């Protein structure tokens, strides 16, 4: 969690030289949507990429106005084990706040997933 993207700048852009600006992210997302549209026209889902893909696990145990969610760490660990055995690159984020979650998802959206079979995000 120490590698979270920076806080938004006053004009709500995220940029520190490592993370594309929102405009750049929109351009990347547009290209990915075009690729996804082509994939939807195929009869079979292509699983012959170089990598299986990334699996993002958002684990929420503690809440401000609710009681602690018991058992969530056991679920997280089980999901991590299964997804790792399926050759996913697993990333786990625990108890992210709204702004932290937005930064993680924005950074994830800016990454190149073109050599992956899929992207999985679960909570």
Automatic annotation (TrEMBL):
- Signal peptide interval: none
Single Gene Ontology BP term? Answer: proteolysis
Q: Which Pfam families match?
A: Peptidase_C14 (PF00656)
Q: Which residues form the Caspase family p20 domain?
A: 51-123
**GO MF term set:** cysteine-type endopeptidase activity
Stretches for region Disordered = 1-20, 26-47
Q: Where is the composition biased (Polar residues)?
A: 26-38
Tell me the InterPro entries matching this sequence.
Answer: Caspase-like_dom_sf, Pept_C14, Pept_C14_caspase, Pept_C14_p20, Pept_C14A
Matches recorded under PANTHER family: AT03047P-RELATED, CASPASE
The family classification in the record reads:
Belongs to the peptidase C14A family.
What is the protein name given in its UniProt record? CASPASE_P20 domain-containing protein
């Amino acid at each position: 969690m120490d590698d979270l993207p920076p806080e938004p700048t006053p004009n709500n852009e995220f940029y520190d030289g490592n993370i594309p600006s929102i405009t750049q992210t929109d351009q990347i997302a547009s290209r990915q949507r075009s690729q996804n549209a082509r994939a939807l026209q195929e009869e079979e889902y292509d699983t012959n990429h170089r990598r299986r893909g990334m699996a993002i696990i958002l684990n929420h145990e503690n809440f401000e106005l609710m009681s602690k969610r018991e058992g969530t760490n056991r679920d997280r660990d089980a999901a991590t084990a299964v997804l790792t055995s399926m050759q996913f690159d697993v990333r786990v984020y625990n108890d992210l706040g709204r702004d932290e979650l937005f930064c993680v998802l924005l950074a994830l959206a800016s990454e190149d997933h073109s050599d992956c079979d899929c992207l999985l995000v679960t909570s």
